[in-house]
Amino acid sequence: MKKCLYCGSSVKDDEHVCPNCGGKLVSESGESSARQVPPENIHKEETQQPVTHANKNKLYSTIASIIFVVLFIVAFLTIVLCAILA
After folding, report:
1. Does any domain span residue 45?
2. Where does 1-86 show beta strands of DSSP type E?
3. Whether residue 57 is found in the same domain as residue 36
4. In 10 A of CB 18, how many CB atoms?
5. How confident is the model at residue 33 (pLDDT cuts 50, 70, 90)?
6. Does residue 72 lie in a domain region?
7. 3-state secondary structure of 11
8. Domain residue limits at 86
9. Rounded to whole angstroms, how far apart are CA atoms 75 and 86?
10. Section 31-37 average pLDDT
11. Where does residue 26 fall: left (phi above 0), alpha (psi -120 to 50 degrees), or beta otherwise?
């Protein structure tokens, strides 16, 4: 058995198309390995960005900004409510 280079699933030696992703498997004459032709509709998985120091700082800055806005709104509404009730 061989493995599909695109999705990693096991493919029988006598198959010409990967049963999982549809990639065509083309046997080269005289060689035991196969060259694969990519399917036209295959979607590669998006890779996640590695977590870096800059990404963490941006995340913390965004969270701090959201907390600040929420606290400001709560304080403003408290002042308004106290003025109405007084």
Report:
1. no
2. 2-3, 10-11, 24-27, 34-37
3. no
4. 23
5. very low
6. yes
7. strand
8. 52-86
9. 16
10. 49
11. beta
8 Å CB contact between 35 and 43: no
User: Is the CB of residue 47 less than 8 Å from the CB of residue 38?
Assistant: no
Alpha-carbon distances of 16 from 19, 23, 25, 72, rounded to whole Å: 9, 8, 5, 64
The predicted model scores a pTM of: 0.39
pLDDT for 65-83, tens place per residue?
999 999 999 999 999 999 9
Q: Are residues 36 and 56 in the same domain?
A: no
Residue 46 lies in a domain: no
Q: Check whether residue 3 and residue 34 sit in a common domain.
A: yes
Number of domains in the chain: 2
Residue-level length of the chain: 86
